[in-house]
Amino acid sequence: MAGLRTVGAIALTLLVLALLGADVTHMVAGSMAAMVATFAIREKQRRAQAITLLLGLPVALSAMSLGALLNTRVVEGDLFFLALIFAAVYSRRFGDRGTALGLIGFQIYFVSLFVSASGSTLPGLCGTLAIAFVCSAAVRFGLVAESPERILTRLRAAFRARLAQLVAAQIDLLDAGPDRVEKALEELRQHTARLHETAMMIQGRLADGTSDSATASLVQRRIADAEIAAERLGVLLLTARSAERADTLTLHLPNAPVPAPGNRLRAQDDTTATLRRDLAALRLLVARPVADERGTAVAHVRNRLLGYRDEENLPRTSAAVQDVFRGIGEAARSVLGLRMALDGPQDESDDTPSTTRSREELDAEDVAVAAADESAAEGDDRTGLERPTTRAAVQVAVGSALAIVGGEFLSSQRWYWAVLTCWVVFLNTASTGEILVKGYRRLLGTVFGVVAGVLLAGLVGNHTWTAFALVLLFIFAMFFTAPLSYALMSFFVTAMLGLLYTLLNTYSAEVLVLRIEETALGAACGVIAAALILPVHTDRRTDELLATVLSRLGDVTGAAVEQLSGGPALDLLDKARDLDTALDDLRASIQPLTHPITPLRARRQTARYLVALLETCAYHARSLAATAELLPHSKTVAADPRLKRAGRRIAHNIAVLVAHVEDQQDAGEVETGASLASMLEPDGPDGPRHDRVTGRVLRHLQRLDEGVVGLARPLGVPVSTPDRKTSPRAASL
């Protein structure tokens, strides 16, 4: 949608300028201005977008005017450019609007350099800017209109599609032979990660895309239920295929070894055929919109799958395979809840007793989902050079100064390409390692883009509108590939610039080779500035984010155990999503450590293993949070005060890990010992027994405890093992 909106704004600008008889220079300037005016604005609400766009026009006019006036004054122009760069980066501290206005100011000044603006051409260029901004507004609010509600509607459809793809991957895993099981398992990992990514995107749009906080909480709850149920079904299916219980870590660790095969599922067995049929039915139930349902076929499928939640409906087979059927029943229940939350009340005339019970449970949970008060955003209490925006502004200014000096030696006319690269490599990066990787990717994309630009310039020749059509195509491709590959995006940017040079009659092979040299220079200047000026080393950045992830893991787990023990109700799913957000930030920050060019192979494997362990712990924490939120209205889960005993050890171990990561003295040791189930043994012959605590809660707690202890080894934290005996009952659990 961002690509369509940007291409639409550029196309409309070109059409208006063509009708007014503008020359190619003004068309190029208008195209670039329309692109900046469209992609720079990131607010979610339409009113906020309109205000930013309105404020952006005077900023753009000022930047173009100053660029034209300072074009012939080298020293003054360079000093102003550095001041503008500092201000543009520093303005990020003021949120999306500050970021957008800073980006518009910088990019339009760059446009003035690109088209060699001067005092005589300034009136025409200012008129072109006004036309570009008006066309951008017309496309944004008219031709390619967007709203938070529409975006959330598409994301809901995307979640259903991802969920159906995950179930399809689970069917492939069921059918995979010994030679295909590794590939099937890798596809299962990919679809599990993509489903989680879509759930996080929905989480980011709920506040703006729903009518009230109660609706947002309900949708959030149902999305979380469906994600947890789908991931649990994958683990159960992998266990049924294997000779022993599968570890959840297998679904999160790339290239994890495949569990040893078992003989509980045979290809031609009737139970396997039934399981395959029911997984296909679950996929149909997920993918089929309520509006497309006709007759009673879908209701029959739904009732059959929900029936597996009752023990008497399970097939006579091994316990592990029965768990898969139970998992299908729970997944069908989550899909029913998802449909009720997204599509409203549904026909209940064909409900069976099992379906009626599931609806009653969901209705009871709806009562339990209280509208959560919006928690105040955590403010950044850092000041001065410790503030990230200030530090980045200083780094970019120093790097740009180096790029200006070096760029002048390469070319007195196109030195600004080095400055642009230095600016770009600092966008959305927070450490020296991230800047190094981004600079490498930009250089790689630029090299291949130059080759493509040479070929295209020769083919296009003097065909102006053909060149503009290719520019529009490349701009769309630039936006479409940006989330997938920065190198690929840089390729399309460079190929597009080759076409723009052709339009301006300044194209030559030497110009595009100079583009590579300036890009390499700008990337090098950015890395030097990041490494020497107020550096934020990758290790430091990673440690900060790791401590945040562990702290939020402790918050979610502690709050869930407290509520499962009979404590007050809390907004657990919001805490769980905060954990997921912190984990996503950590995953992005370790890319320099896991990148293929990283020479330290052992360190790369350790980083991947650490993130996979954290993802596993986050899954079990989410599951505990979702279960705890069922209290006190659930008919299947009851509070048990003894769970506090199990929670204490997990809380202690997480606190030790956080203290160790933060380099605190006397951080202590991670404790291991008897299983958590043994810690919940009856307090006496008449004490409460385990039937008050579901086996699922105990399993999630046990897996979480094992995951937290597993984190100690890659982090270098000492582990103590008290001499405790595990009771037979606990061992069986």
Write the layout of secondary structure elements.
Blueprint: H1 2-19, H2 24-39, H3 46-69, H4 74-90, H5 95-114, H6 122-143, H7 148-175, H8 181-209, H9 213-241, H10 270-287, H11 297-306, H12 319-343, H13 353-368, H14 388-410, H15 416-425, H16 432-460, H17 464-481, H18 486-503, H19 509-532, H20 538-564, H21 572-589, H22 591-594, H23 601-628, H24 643-661, E1 670-671, H25 695-715, E2 719-720, H26 728-732
Helix pairs in contact: 1-2, 1-6, 1-17, 2-5, 2-6, 3-5, 3-6, 4-5, 4-14, 7-8, 7-9, 7-10, 8-9, 9-12, 9-23, 10-11, 10-12, 14-15, 14-19, 15-19, 16-18, 16-19, 17-18, 20-21, 20-23, 20-24, 21-23, 23-25, 24-25
Question: How would you characterize this protein structure?
Answer:
The protein is mainly alpha-helical and 733 residues long. The protein is built from 26 helices and two strands. It has helices at 2-19, 24-39, 46-69, 74-90, 95-114, 122-143, 148-175, 181-209, 213-241, 270-287, 297-306, 319-343, 353-368, 388-410, 416-425, 432-460, 464-481, 486-503, 509-532, 538-564, 572-589, 591-594, 601-628, 643-661, 695-715, 728-732, and strands spanning 670-671, 719-720. The protein has a two-stranded parallel ribbon. Helix 25 (695-715) links the parallel strand 1 and strand 2 (719-720). Helix 10 (270-287) packs across helix 11 (297-306). It is globular and about 85 Å long. It starts with a helix and ends with a helix. Residues 370-379, 683-693 and 723-733 have low confidence and may be disordered.
